[in-house]
Predict the structure of Alpha/beta hydrolase.
Amino acid sequence: MSVRSQFLTFKNTRLHYLEVGAIAAKTVLFLHGASFKAQTWQELGTLQLLSDRGYRAIALDLPGYGQSETVNANPQTFLLDCLDLLKVEKTAVVSPSTSGRFSLPFLVGHGDRLFGFVAIAPVGIPNFIEKLQGNSVPTLAVWGSNDRIVSPEQADLLVKVMSNARKVIFKEAGHACYMRATDPFHEELLAFLERCT
């Protein structure tokens, strides 16, 4: 099954996403950081890998990135609205860096729509620590040991307050640790998703 390039209409603008896998399969939604886009996950082979393992993988270009138009999206409701438009009831979200401004409010407000959360050094963790206290969504915190943008100490913070979280630190990797440690990242991601499903 090949990766499909598609668009959804969000507040009269077009948001682009890549999708692969059976519609009825468990869905994993990939977001991206400021230097990347949905296509990054295709180039790394992540989307195809997940499809081959029986998942439906969706990579979304955030507003103003990749092929998505710019739109003023409310961080509190953006992912919820997108999932509803995609007709996805429950998903796991993979959230690196900048995308934390959308994924963390979603994790706090709509954890019932998540069967897993993969936090790849997302921005904004300290702002949500109180609200994440005791949150039981299965969570994998993935960091590079050399991350100078979001300190690996924030992984400890996340794991400490959430009741079902563990961390993985990739040695010698930076902020976008999955770019340098792609194979180990894929192994950890697949193992995590297997435990969640």
In short: The chain has a mean pLDDT of 97.
